[in-house]
Amino acid sequence: SDPKIQALLAKHGLEDDCPLPTTSHARSLLWKYCLSVAGASWHAASLLMGGSADEGDRDVVIHWGGGRHHSHSNKAGGFCFVNDVVLAIQRLLKSRVNGVDNGMFAGIPDFQYSSASGDESTPRILYIDLDIHHPDGVQSAFYSTDRVLTASFHRFAPGFFPTSSGSIREKGESGTAGMGYNLNIPLPSGIGDIAFIRMFRRLIFGLVKSYDPHAVVLCLGADGLKGDELISGSGKFEDNRGGFVNFDCTSSSSGEGWDLSPEGLAECVRIAAALCADVDEETIFSAPSKESDQEADPNVILDHIPSKKRQRSPEHKKAGRKRKLLILGGGGYTPALTAKTYLLCTAAACEGARPGMMWSELPKDIPAHDYFPRYGPSFELVSEDKKLEIFQSYSAKEPIAGDAKNHKLLLEGVHAIELACVYIDHERRKKSNHKSGLVDGQVNSFSFDGTDQDEFMLTTNVSRKRKKAEPKKSLGGRRRKKNGHRDSSS
């Protein structure tokens, strides 16, 4: 009740969704919780680095209890008391600063060009956040450095938490190495799996090609799923004891969520895992194997093309080189939906080492257990209809229908991704060319070869017709006088 104490608590975010416990025992539990969350993510990053015999050398590590991306160095927020994401990334950045950990990037031929700024002592880390809320704490931590490229898909609207960050104009701190290495892509409310996956495909392939990271950190929130209790605006969500907790949604969301499915989010994980495992793009977006063919030859993945052109499994067709992958959790306020999503994402993360794990090997239905009734009414683990919809979209030529406002927001996101990729690649080549032993042209320039149709596939039917008609016009036909005659100056 002391105003000074209340002001101090407010200054450090210890109110509303992050209240400071009132008893010493509760504060002790909170401290242990922070240690557990942060320590687990730190250890997960250590497992990727393989710095010691007991840690080993892993390619993919998952910590679903992590992803507390709203906390700042001196302030809690958004249910986050500690930012384990920042700590995990800092652990990855320490992999060679002191020459202690040598296992993480062993065998990478171009490690000497590990920083876009030319710093040879640290790796490049690509952070991608798919939580519906903007990762303001992570952005703030790496806003002035090019050692970490931060990219986020999120909602950005009046009243949607966090209200002070997430704009597409936030590109890094001006005058520092971080300028151009922060990418915010606000997505419209109601976006579905197909548009979301297409945007993610363009994002991750573009950034991996231009930034060439040594490790990818993926933060997955289940709060963008259709039906999430908090984001849907219902004003309540289940706690870990099965009861409901009332919450004022007006302070954290506007009731405008996304329309994603667990399968859609898991497909993004499958794409990331396969890409980090050195699988080429064509193979990643091939259809899953048929069971009969998989039993006969598990190394064959059937596509929508004749059998004589069937692709080999990812372990037989390589794209370039492997990258480490750290997967962390995030928001998610409907326990059964979140649990199902993270199970599918776990299976999807195995795709690099075990192709078909997600779409071909998981059981169709939820197995019987104590909380089985919560997974009704379908009780499906993997939807065959959703599986078919996702893979058919990879060969579809029709644009995604949508209203003009959403269409504009998606196109702004596509253009922001393109500009970021071109800028990052240009900066990396420019700074690399100053190093001894490099000549102009030794580092490939960036382009979106093979993905030119992505923007077209995000357009509406009206814009599609306009795009087809424009090339047929002459230059003079675009400039006319008010009386209808062509301007002779053109």
Give structural notes.
This protein is of the alpha/beta class and 490 residues long. 34% of the residues lie in helices and 8% in strands. Strand 2, helix 4 and strand 3 form a beta-alpha-beta unit. The longest helix has 29 residues, at 404-432. The termini are far apart.
Number of helices: 14
Report the radius of gyration as a whole number of Å: 24 Å
Largest sheet: 6 strands, parallel
The geometry reads as globular
What is the arithmetic mean of pLDDT?
79
Set out the fold topology.
Layout: H1 3-11, H2 24-49, E1 60-63, H3 84-93, E2 125-129, H4 136-141, E3 148-154, E4 182-186, H5 193-211, E5 215-219, E6 236-238, E7 244-246, H6 262-276, H7 281-284, H8 291-296, E8 300-301, E9 311-312, E10 324-328, H9 335-349, H10 357-361, H11 384-393, H12 404-432, H13 453-456, H14 461-469
Task: Provide keyphrases for this structure.
about 500 residues, alpha/beta, 6-stranded parallel beta sheet
Give the gist of this structure.
With 490 residues, the protein is of the alpha/beta class. It is built from 14 helices and ten strands. 34% of the residues lie in helices and 8% in strands.
